[in-house]
Amino acid sequence: MTLQQLKYADAVAECGSISEAARRCFVTQPTLTEAIRTLEEELRIAIFTRSAKGVAVTREGDEFLGSARQILDDAARIQEKYTGKAVRRPQFSVSCQHYAFAVEAFMEVVKANDADSYDFTLRETVTSEIIDDVARHRSEVGVLYLSRRNERALMKILKKEELLFEEIFTSRPHVFLGRRHPLAKKKGGIAPSELDAHPFISFEQGVENALYFAEEVMPSIDRKKNIRVRDRATMTNLILGLDGYTIASGALSRELNGPDIIAVPLKMDDLIRVGVIRRSGIPLSPAGAAFVSSLLRRVSPLACGA
Fold this sequence. Notes:
The chain is of the alpha/beta class and 306 residues long. The protein is built from 10 helices and 12 strands. It has a 5-stranded mixed β-sheet with strand order 4-3-5-12-6, sandwiched between helices. The protein has a 3-stranded antiparallel β-sheet with strand order 10-7-11.
C-alpha cells in the first residue's frame, strides 16, 4: 500500500467516477484502475462497487477511506512542516438542516483557514440526505435534531449506519415569525391552536416524507394551512409576506435570517436536541473539529435545561 494508492482511492470516492478521478490525478484511467484493483487485493476488501452509473463506496470502503484520509492529512502536514509547501488542499464537507448557526460556524472555519487553496462544501439539505452523506463519506459531519417524535426512528437509522449523534445543545421549540405578525407580541409564548389561522412554512423532505425526517418538531400533519419550501430565503419571504411561521430551535441569526424575523416560545411539551452526526471510530479532521468547536461556542447561550 502506497500514499499514491491512497490518493487515487480518495479521488475516486470524491469524484464518484474513475475517469474524472484519473483526470484530476493526471494519470490514465487504466493506471488508476489498476492501482485501485491492486490495493483492494492487498487489503482483501472491496473499496468500491462499479456499475453503469459510476462507482460507489462500500461500507468497508467507508471505514478504509476515513483512515486513509487521516494518513494523507498527516503526511501532508509533515511535508508542509519540513518543506514549507502545502502538498494537499484542506478538504471539509458538512451536511446540515437549515440552521443559520451551522452556516456561521462553517464561515468561521473558512475564514480561519490560511491555506493558499482549499476545497470545502456546505450542503443544506433534507434529513435523509444528511444521514446518507455522512454514512457514504460525502460529508465528514452532519447537523440535525432529535425530539420525542423522531428520536427512536432516527437513532435506529444512525445505529444501522454506524453513526454517532453528539448533542451540542437542547432548546425549547420556538415560533419564527415576522415582527409585524399578529402574534409577535406574545412574549410569554404561543399555543399551537393560536397558529391555526396562519400558514405553516416547512422544509420539503423530498421522497423521504416520513414524519421522523421532518425538520420541524411540530410536523405539517398537525397544521391546517401548509406550505413547503426547499430553501431558507423562500421561507423567510413567505413568513413575512403571508404572516406565516415555522417552528425551530430559537437560534436566530440577524445576518442570515434577517432583522424582521423574531423567535417566540411555543407552548409545547417537547425539547429540540440539536447535535452533530459523524462516523463511529473515525476522529475528526482539524477542519471538522474546528467546525464543531465553533458550533458549541455559538449555541451555548441558547441551551436550556432539559
